[in-house]
Amino acid sequence: MRGFSKMSQPNDNNPILGIWNKATSRLGQLLPTEQIAKTVVGLFNVSEAQIAEILETVKAQLPTTEALLIGKPQAGKSSIVRGLTGVSPSIVGQGFRPHTQHTQRYAYPSNDLPLLIFTDTVGLGDVNQDTQSIIQELIGDLQQESRGARVLILTVKINDFATETLRTIAQQLREKYRDIPFLLAVTCLHEVYPQGIDNHPLYPPNFEEVNRAYTAIKEGFKGLYDAAILVDFTLEEDGFEPVFYGLEKLRDTLADLLPEAEARTIYQLLDLDKQASIQIGNLYRNVARRYMYAFSVIAATLAAVPLPFATMPVLTALQVSMVGLLGKLYGQNLTQSQAGGIVSAIAGGFLAQAIGRELVKFIPGFGSVIAAYWAAAYTWALGEAACVYFGDVMGGKKPDTKQIQVVMQTAFQEAKERFKNLEAPLSKQ
């Protein structure tokens, strides 16, 4: 700031420089930059309790489906989760968490805002486990009040006929919960394909080996399911195409068994013409925008102060704070340093524009007004980009910074139009 004050000495009669010096002195007295930064960060340091309250409100409105997966280990339960969510095997493995002694849970896309909740039984094939204790735990789960629809999926490998325990569990649950649809999913079809067949045929498969085993399994579970399907969800390295063989049949069958809202969600998640990340991203973004607007308005207010570069550290602190908060909404707890690193990664291309925004303040009269709505638009666009970034992280994907910057560029252009109406109130200040 000393360098700028010396510029006024050669000509004290310059009205622009006079206004500049007066504003500099007043801002220095009333709004020290460091103090503003701390105040801004403090104002928007939203507590975990506040975030939880907002997420709980949104969660109550979601058409969530709870799917209870019952079957032996290696029967294809995790593969069904992969098929319905599109996440990688490693993410599925990490996502399941112990729920009770014999069950684990995985919420997709997150525990805070789930669209699908999977409950997986463990220890079903262990002869040392007490079947009745497994049944009681499942009954306990089903007795809990649920906001969404439920479906119970019995998973059986096509070449496994030692299913007495599974039938016992299905029978007792079926008798107690007639209102919950039961789906029999017969998996791992390729393990009984005829010799010489090294890929999936057109769905459904019409091999004698498959038909015979499928008929026997359905007969064994007669009266214990509402619908039965054949699926074979493999890994890419297994060499079978498609990887999720029978996924469309699974989607359609679940949609038939579920209420309309939940069925529509299943279709949206599995629509081959859309990416599930778009649907989920919109869900989280609607929550995030509640904060993004507040940050954008205060950014405009700060940027309206006619001091080139003086407000940049404050705006940076504000924007880093916003990214940290958005990270919390997406389940990512970040330090200020980590949030700053993300800002640098996704907004590097906008640095020149940010500097240009500050230089325009030298234009008397309307420079600060332009800077104000540009700051609001930039802050909003940064929030949109951060939502895409965190959405990728949450979905187990590596964020594509080039794609994110395209999103930010588009959001910035749209936000400039949106925040132009800030000119009037800011110009009166």
Protein traits:
single chain, 429 residues, Rossmann fold, 18 helices, 9 strands, elongated
Structure commentary:
With 429 residues, this protein is of the alpha/beta class. The chain has 2 domains: 177 residues, no CATH class; 211 residues, Rossmann fold, CATH 3.40.50.300. It is built from 18 helices and 9 strands. Strands 2-3-4-1-5-6-7 form a 7-stranded mixed sheet, sandwiched between helices. The chain has a two-stranded antiparallel sheet with strand order 8-9. Strand 2 and strand 3 form a beta hairpin. Helix 12 packs antiparallel against helix 13, helix 12 runs antiparallel to helix 16 and helix 13 runs parallel beside helix 16. The protein is elongated and about 75 Å long. The two termini are 23 Å apart. 38% of the residues are buried.
